[in-house]
Structures are given as structure tokens and as C-alpha cells.
Amino acid sequence: MDDEDLARDHTGEHRFKAFRQAEALIENRRPLDALKVLQPVLEAEPDKPSVQLLAARAYFHSAQLNRAERAFTRVLELDPSDHYARFVLGRTLQRLGRLVEALGQLRMAWAMNPVPEYQDALSEVNARVHLQEG
Question: Which keywords accompany this UniProt record (predicted)?
């Protein structure tokens, strides 16, 4: 292994540690700190679904909903089968007041993975849409 390989390994290791640190910060309800730690990883690996998903979660939890929407949408461009990204995109659209769009994403998430959390969110948004229509 030459010096260039070592440098790449170190950089990869550093990005991995930053990613894990950002995950821990989100879990500890510190999404803004997570975004600071994650920034170099986002710059180095903008097309990696896991990186975009973590950034999207941090944006969502820090109420940066337009950024969250863009990041979740990017995740789904990279991996259309990510039911969790669809679920939280639906929740993001719900928080933005775009209930019909939210309903579509939540329906897809639930169809892909019918867990109670997805069903609850789907039922809640569905009820709100019906109230607006009625």
C-alpha cells in the first residue's frame, strides 16, 4: 500500500467515524451538531443513499423541512425501494401542510412495509385530508 492508498484509507475511516458520530448526535437530539459533523461526508459522498438519509433525518429533526424534503427525495432517486425514506418524506410533507402529497408517500411506505407506525401516520393524514375536503 503506497502513501496515496493510506491517505484514501484514512479519509474513508475519518468519514466513517464522522458518519457514526452524526448518527449518535441525531439520536441524542442534536441534529444541528450532526449536520456540522456530517458536512464533509456529504461533500465527499453526495450520491450515497445512507449519507443523504442521515442528512435528511437531521434536517427533519431541526425543522429544516424544505432541505429535508430535498434530501429524502434524493435518497429515493438513488434507492426507490427505501420505505423509511418514503415514510419520513411523507411526515415532512405533512409538516409542510402538503397533505395529499404526504398521503401518497405514506401509502407507498405502508405498502412496502406494513408496520403499525406507518399505518398510524397514514390514518392520521388520511383523516386530516377528509376533514379538509368535508
Answer: TPR repeat
Give pLDDT tens digits along the chain (134 positions): 333 333 344 478 889 999 999 999 999 999 999 999 999 999 999 999 999 999 999 999 999 999 999 999 999 999 999 999 999 999 999 999 999 999 999 999 999 999 999 999 999 999 999 998 87
Closest CA to 39 of 61, 58, 60: 58
C-alpha Rg value of the chain to the nearest Å:
17
The DSSP-derived string for 70-114 is: HHHHHHHHH-TT-HHHHHHHHHHHHHTT-HHHHHHHHHHHHHHS-
What is the domain partition of the chain in residue ranges?
1-80, 81-134
